[in-house]
Backbone:
């Protein structure tokens, strides 16, 4: 599949991965599990919100299933390492991104899709950093594979938007949201979480 997502404006400092791996790996893995569960639920919620957009429903079902499989894989890692599931907390990154959503059915629809692309691209970037920095072979392989999966999802969500909107509209809005995401992520303090 040809890449249709765009590069992130703000790049995470590679030392973020060291911060996670050295002192916060268990907390990061627990948050990662919550992120995968929420990603699956988000894909299903798009189906519920937009049943009149049939071009994207089959792939949204596949994404929901794939994210749920990722949750299962992370949960197995948690069990192996003795990490308990944690109660979900509000993610300041996601909460700030949601403020970028416009009102109006079509505007909100395209924004949901394109923000999903940006979020998937940020996840891919951070999984890549973890996979490159971690020495544990199982986790290195796991996060390398997830990096590829998240990058693919970044493209799929842009494809969804292109199924309903022209290319100029899609990429103009994607660039605006990407710029907004950069402003949000660069000002957030590092936490033992994916975002």
Residues:
């Amino acid at each position: 599949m040809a890449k249709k997502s765009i590069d992130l404006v703000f790049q995470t400092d590679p030392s973020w991965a060291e911060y996670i791996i050295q002192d916060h790996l268990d907390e990061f893995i627990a948050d990662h599990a919550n992120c995968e569960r929420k990603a699956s639920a988000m894909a299903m919620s798009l189906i519920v919100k937009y049943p009149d957009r049939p071009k994207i429903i089959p792939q949204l079902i596949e994404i929901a299933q794939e994210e749920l499989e990722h949750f299962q894989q992370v949960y197995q890692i948690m069990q192996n390492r003795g990490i308990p599931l944690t109660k979900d907390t509000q993610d300041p990154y996601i909460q700030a991104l949601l403020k970028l959503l416009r009102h109006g059915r079509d505007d909100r629809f395209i924004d949901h899709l394109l923000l999903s692309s940006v979020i998937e691209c940020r996840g891919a970037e951070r999984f890549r950093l973890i996979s490159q920095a971690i020495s544990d072979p199982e986790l290195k392989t796991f996060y390398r594979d997830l990096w590829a999966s998240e990058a693919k999802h970044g493209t799929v969500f842009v494809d969804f938007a292109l199924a309903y909107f022209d290319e100029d509209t899609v990429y103009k809005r994607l660039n605006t949201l990407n710029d907004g995401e950069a402003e949000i992520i660069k000002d957030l303090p590092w936490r033992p979480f994916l975002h």
